[in-house]
Design goal:
This protein has 127 residues and is mainly alpha-helical. Helix content is 76%, strand content 0%. It has five helices and no strands.
Length: 127
């Protein structure tokens, strides 16, 4: 798959996550499921990190670096993206607030994504 499409996909995922994390929460459907917010944060950052890993692995392919650079950069990017979103929730929104446990859920989702990408290395390399 061309790296430009992978970049568009990763950016689209990032934009969707930013939109849903910064939109007025009263516009979102109410779900009565324990810890659903943390599960959503985990899933968002799992997908975010996987999409950036796939892009960075393609971007760095053929260069004199190992795959772990793509994993590391994607993980750090996801964590900083999550922290930034949490800060923006506290500053820009009225119906949301910053939450350290959301940052932890984000980081856990990113970490699980890295280990999943390592486990699925052969399949990801085929993309």
């Amino acid at each position: 798959m061309p790296k430009q499409l992978l970049l568009i996909w990763a950016m689209l995922c990032s934009g969707i996550i930013a939109y849903f994390c910064l939109t007025d929460s009263s516009n979102l459907p109410a779900v009565s499921f324990p810890s659903i917010d943390k599960i959503v944060h985990f899933c968002f950052h799992f997908g975010f990190t996987i999409s950036w890993i796939v892009f960075f692995k393609k971007e760095l392919k053929g260069k004199d670096v190992n795959d772990y650079k793509a994993y590391f950069v994607s993980f750090v990017f996801s964590v900083f993206f999550g922290i930034t979103i949490e800060i923006l929730q506290g500053v820009l929104t009225v119906t949301r607030s910053s939450d350290v446990t959301d940052v932890l859920a984000n980081a856990l989702g990113a970490l699980v994504a890295v280990f999943t990408a390592i486990a699925l290395k052969k399949q990801i390399d085929k993309i």
